Amino acid sequence: MLPHPHSQLLGFYGDTKRLNTSLPVDDFEFRTEQFLPYLESIFSLLFQLLQQVTECDTKMQVLHVVSCVIERVSVQIRPYVGCLVQYLPLLWKQSEEHNMLRCAILTTLVHLVQGLGAESKNLYPFLLPVIQLSTDVSQPPHVYLLEDGLELWLVTLENSPAITPELLRIFQNMSALLELSSENLRTCFQIINAYTYLSAAQFLQNYAESLCRSFCDLLKDITTEGQVQVLKVVEIVIKLSPVQGSHMFQPLLPAVLRGIVDGERYPVVMSTYLGVMGRVLLQNSSFFFSLLSQMAADLHQEADQTLGSLIEMWVDRMDNITQPERRKLSSLALLSLLPSDNSVIQDKFCGIINICVEALHDVMSEDLDSGTFKDCMLMSGMEELKLTEDEEPPTEQDKRKKLLALEDPVHSVSLQQYVFEKLKAQQQLLGETGFQALMETVDSEIVRQLQEFLQGL
């Protein structure tokens, strides 16, 4: 049984040192539903306490408990935060000389934004200047505030219902942050992704050039893990905005293409290279072929020779790709080269079919009743985000990702159907005899498995 928190709190006006251990919100066995009847009174008392205590350390302790309460009850805090929302700007102003107290305020704001969700937009007049100051490396307080400020920036974007000019403007802080190459880089990349999910067109229109410059500089001197993180951002941008994204990151892409052809030795880097190039080939093929021609010229080769080397390495290194989504992406990308009467593509036909069958094994599930297969990567707009009891409700960004996934070929195109249509188109192009000769280059067991997947189409 939960101790009555109301009576416990009343004693803390005289003794705040026991505050952190008073409320069982940090307890492993804490049950939110038992706490809810006391939430309004407890939050009111905590707020009164926060106003009345004068020492910074004590205010920080109170804010810590406030944060814990908000974190525990999540969206159910919404009816009770009005007073806190009105008071925090004043407390922020009063704490100008107390950076550790400001850190505590930032942490409270993180939980508050998560609890408010899309309603957090009402806090922007206070919230955005706080983020601006905390993440501006030209301002001395950033030394203390940066980490929490970045976290607040990220959750603000994740819970934002729509982009605003002010929210967009804060991104001006990012170039200097990327130059730091600090332990906060991962959060910076998450922030960039969040802007892309929030409003790719507006974001890229304003910041594509500076972001590409920052990434080019970063890639000159960064760990393998950092390189992968940069390229994952590139892949997301191209996925969401194939034309604009490809042009935006054009300076980076020749190195990616070259890395594939040269057989990049680190599997995780190679997998990321193939993910990026798979997006370009599948979603912006004209750009892909211009990139290929440019590289062929640099290598003093014919474009077909370079294409042959690329496909060969792609097929050979498919095992570097472990995620089913990326394996399906590579299959869709290479299949997009069909139908073709190009001798190089026909020469690599066997390899393309091999990886497609591998990917079909990855993504197809069999309906035992009907004996037919379906692509388990396909998503429909009818699906709801299913939550377990312990899961948080979806953020605005979760909802955006779901909607954007519906437009992603990986989640909207059936690999089974795509293989069937491409093979049929190839057959029509070459005629029955030519097509049969092409199919004979494929191992008979692979052909048998392929036919099994395609039965009923």
Automatic annotation (TrEMBL):
<dbReference type="InterPro" id="IPR011989">
    <property type="entry name" value="ARM-like"/>
</dbReference>
<dbReference type="GO" id="GO:0005635">
    <property type="term" value="C:nuclear envelope"/>
</dbReference>
<dbReference type="InterPro" id="IPR058669">
    <property type="entry name" value="TPR_IPO7/11-like"/>
</dbReference>
<dbReference type="GO" id="GO:0005829">
    <property type="term" value="C:cytosol"/>
</dbReference>
<dbReference type="Pfam" id="PF25758">
    <property type="entry name" value="TPR_IPO11"/>
</dbReference>
<dbReference type="InterPro" id="IPR016024">
    <property type="entry name" value="ARM-type_fold"/>
</dbReference>
<protein>
    <recommendedName>
        <fullName>Importin-7/11-like TPR repeats domain-containing protein</fullName>
    </recommendedName>
</protein>
<dbReference type="GO" id="GO:0006606">
    <property type="term" value="P:protein import into nucleus"/>
</dbReference>
<feature type="domain" description="Importin-7/11-like TPR repeats">
    <location>
        <begin position="103"/>
        <end position="454"/>
    </location>
</feature>
